[in-house]
Amino acid sequence: MGFPGNRMRRLRSSDAMRRLVRRNSLSVDDLVYPLFARSGEGVKEPIESIEGCLAFSPDMIANEAKDVASLGIPAVLLFGLPDKKDQRGSQAWAEDGAVQQSARRIKDAVPQLAVITDVCLCAYTTSGHCGVVNKDGRVDNDATCELLAKTALSHVQAGADMVAPSDMMDGRVRYIRQCLEENGFDDRAIMSYAAKYASAFYGPFRDAAGSSPEFGDRRSYQMDPACSDQAMQEIALDIEEGADIVMVKPGLCYLDIIQRARQRFDCPIAAYFVSGEYMMIKSAAKAGLLDEDAATAEALACLKRAGADIIITYSAKTSAKLLTG
Ligand code: PBG
Asked: pTM, whole model, 2 decimals?
């Protein structure tokens, strides 16, 4: 007595003991895999900036979705890479757009897989902004919300189970919820990118989507990385407006935000382990500086520990394989 000895180490003495006392563990059930849809036929091409990810034409995407489902991953998050852009981003709500066609094909082929669609205009507008730009060069909030609602409606009409607005306009969840209800889609969920920060970690994604703003930046709508209380306000508003799941994005630098949200709100919380975070690990691993699988597993475990129920990650397929052996 009197010596600390193995006071804390007793419960770390074997893998079995560590597993026994662990309160958080990542499961394949938590994962969402982002899928990129582009128009055309027979297309299956690598996305250069997000290593390991591919873009598919609608006729090819169902096979990939089957593969994802066979790994036990419950959901995919669909992004569109349009080949035509215009001022208003009209391809975003086109009935035959790549996302809409892909959602239909996936729901036909793999109905058990949840299809979530990213709802935003930045990949579709010539300005690269997440909304329509006014004559005075500002992103018009309410005009954008109307178009986002139209886009969300086209996605659920194509079979999407859940829409995920990632634009950060004020009130967009209310516009979308109302539009879905008016059109008989009160059964479809909304996962809002509620606390989405103006982050440099989206670089590889913007490269893939060609969605870097033509002028200015996204700081007039995405959150300031230095803010925390404001994230709670954003999340509370989205829940009040009808969001079913709220997201914090990016993940790793924002674990405090995930944890605060977990303590304060009861609804499911998603964390997006974004392209830059994913590529940081990949690049460091390539340079021989760290072990990719171990670093990824650690990052995802930390997102869980902070309080995320759902993790959106480009490593979902690899992680699922590692988790299920
Ligand atoms: C669209 C959108 C972005 C991401 C998801 N949806 C880019 C952005 O806001 O600039 C980023 C995803 C990633 O980096 O992995 N608004």
From this structure: 0.97
